[in-house]
Amino acid sequence: MMMEEVAVPRAPVNGNGRNESGKEMIQMKFIHLSDLHIGKRVNEFPMLEDQKYILKEILSIIDQEKPDGVLIAGDVYDKPVPPAEAVQVFDAFLTSLADRNMPVFVISGNHDSPERLAFGAQLMAGRGVYMSPVFDGHVEPVRMNDQYGSVSVYMLPFVKPAVVRRCYPGREAETFDHAVRCVLENITGEGFSADERNILMAHQFVMGASACDSEELSIGGLEQVSADLFRDFDYVALGHIHGPQKIGRETMRYCGTPLKYSFSEAGHKKSVTVVELFEKGNVSVSVRPLHPLHDMREIKGSYSQVTDRGFYAGTATDDYLHITLTDEEDILDAIGKLRSIYPNVMKLDYDNRRTRAGQTVDTAGEIHKSPMELFGELYELQNNQPMSGKQEEYSRKLMEGIWEDIN
Fold first, then answer.
1. What is the DSSP letter of 170?
2. Rounded to 5 degrees, what angle do the CA atoms 160, 240, 249 make?
3. Which of 50, 68, 107, 295 has the lowest tally of Cβ within 10 angstroms?
4. Where is the Nuclease SbcCD subunit D C-terminal domain positioned along the sequence (predicted)?
């Protein structure tokens, strides 16, 4: 992709951050989105209507905020080959953004097909919609200008070690951390100006991020990359992790999904991130809350409790629900009966003496262990001695290769 220049006219400002009329300085503003997962089904419930609803709300926020650009940091779709309805929903969303005459930047995530997402990229660039191309080792920025100078937006799609090794023969890229380090060293090499403002869009699992059940991550963190790799960028717009959060600093953030996609996210406050860039070194970050068509909640109690009108009166009974019944005996056709009150029950289970007695396997000490640690323990148990350094290195490379193949 050739480097593009996008002009953003701004009134001049003085050194106190105010323009000549004394009004507050005008910033370059971006809306940061990611992980739309258009076409996703949750517990076999289609989410397309909920996604249409939330995208309309995002457009409303965009109309209020009037940003200079929109950053969509990967996982546009939930499948590499999305259903036609999902493509139509994203097409309508992109068209609505393009009609507002603001640049839109989109990278592919691990759920997307880079080739499909990049189709028509050169044509769409004419409307100010910039799609990350299939990664070939080069990441050219789109450059925007305002009264402070230029802002360069670098779009890095989801990359795996095998892809990076093909693009940089002879360079070390055995792990995800090595691979991303290699790419970023190339980006921040010749032609990169640390004195100007630089934004990076990336779709990777950064160490320190808090994950949830709806993400497809490697066991033991094989995908993780160091947060320190991104130090040269004024703002890092991350995708991949579904909970909104900062990583180390306010200006390196996961904006999270616009909707809840698992009950591990029931407590999340979904939002869009608003990023404002002033002069170099002055970045402001805030969030705008989102209000879904159906919330995702968990409720617990006996069957008689949760079906009592006093319990559910005044609540959103059409929310997506995980109901835990505390009755000692199973209720006949419980989910069918509950759906007469709560039509969108997604999950039903029991918490009683019988179910608690069945929970006899203690894995608390193992869930945080890496695959290598678990395999090492198994090897030592079977062979009465630990693995040698050579065996350990061979096993690690084998595991990393398997993880790449299944992703």
1. T
2. 105
3. 295
4. 293-382
